Amino acid sequence: MTTTPPSPTDEPTVPLSRTFIDALDSSPPTGTQTDFGELRVSVWATAQTSPAAQRKGRYVPESTAHPAKMLPAVAAHAIEHYTKAGEVVLDPMCGIGTTLVEAIDLGRRAVGVEYEPHWVGIARANLRFARKRGHGHDGQVVHGDARQLETLLPAEYVGQVALVVTSPPYGSSVHGLVSTNREAGVDKVSKRHYRYGSALDRGNLANIGHHRLLTGFTRILTACARILRPGGHVAITVRPWREHAELIDLPSQIISCGAAAGLIPVERCVALLARVAETELVPRGSFFQRDFVRKQREAGLPLHLIAHEDVIVLRAADLTQSVREVHHEDGAISPGRWAA
Q: How is the chain split into domains, by residue range?
């Protein structure tokens, strides 16, 4: 199904105050609640095999070039845990369609939205590849801007989605593939496939700056809250990442965005990107992540390799609770509403 995306907009469906947005980047000012109490935690052993091994024979080769592919085992774990056979799984920023492939392989129905036309084609190719393996469950990809989710999603899915699994775009330091060129006997290592689309496309959430990304993603989560079935869940995979060596706690910021969208934070899990061995974790960081950490340590900054993704799990609020009840007019989060 092909749908022409409407003109992108950065205006949030739920107004977010400047105070609220600033609180996501610094110590919360007086009157702004961003502490959601003790969320349940679990550890997902999702990297017992390498990312390449998880995709081998299940995804078309062109999938490799995407700068931020979700680990298939992470999507599969969330789908198995939060849904049953035959239920609907949505990814509003589906990329190469990892969530969709894992969903139909597990006997679920799947629908995704993707902004970049190239990845729409790759996601559809991956769904066709899955069907060739004998998985005939309903799965489709819609081309469009997820900020317009409610106008893009086919009507039969509205109110039927049991689970949203997705990930926002974030720092390019964790993305990319290695290329080695040998010239005059010297090995030159370069990086490729580490950006989303054209850097000039300001409609792409990956290109609009950190604050506007948070506003746009809140808009997407607000739409998800409206199309979820009662009690449905949202699982968001997101890493802390570094910008000029400074650690950006994007997971905590995403929890705040979900709360502002009317969703209830219930879990903050750890999806391992390292293999669990008998006595240690075996990291699977990319060449560029390892090289970045090594150079920072040589410069005297004791950084460590990121070996996990946070998985933020939120639940749809009761249908009788309006979005206005979730936050004050000045954007401050209401206390006492986040018990699971």
A: 18-325
Query: Degrees (nearest 5) of the Cα angle 240, 12, 74?
Result: 35
Q: What is the DSSP letter of 184?
A: T
Q: Coil, helix or strand for 211?
A: helix
> What does pTM read for this prediction?
0.76
Q: Model confidence over 288-328: pLDDT tens digits?
A: 778 888 888 899 888 788 888 999 999 997 654 444 344 43
Rg (CA), the chain: 20
CATH architecture of residue range(s) 18-325: 3-Layer(aba) Sandwich (3.40)
**In this structure, are residues 278 and 192 in contact, taking their beta carbons and an 8 Å threshold?**
no
Pairing state of beta strands 228-238 and 139-143? unpaired
Burial class (CB within 10 angstroms; exposed 0-12, middle 13-18, buried 19+) of 323? middle
Question: Which of these, 121, 118, 123, 83, lies nearest to 103 by C-alpha position?
Answer: 83
Q: 56: alpha, beta or left, given left = phi > 0 and alpha = psi -120 to 50?
A: beta
Per-residue model confidence as pLDDT tens digits over 49-97? 999 999 999 999 999 888 888 999 999 999 999 999 999 999 999 999 9
Q: Which pair of tokens denotes residue 213?
A: 């990304």
CA-closest candidate to residue 213, choices 168, 255, 260:
168
Terminal C-alpha separation, the chain:
37
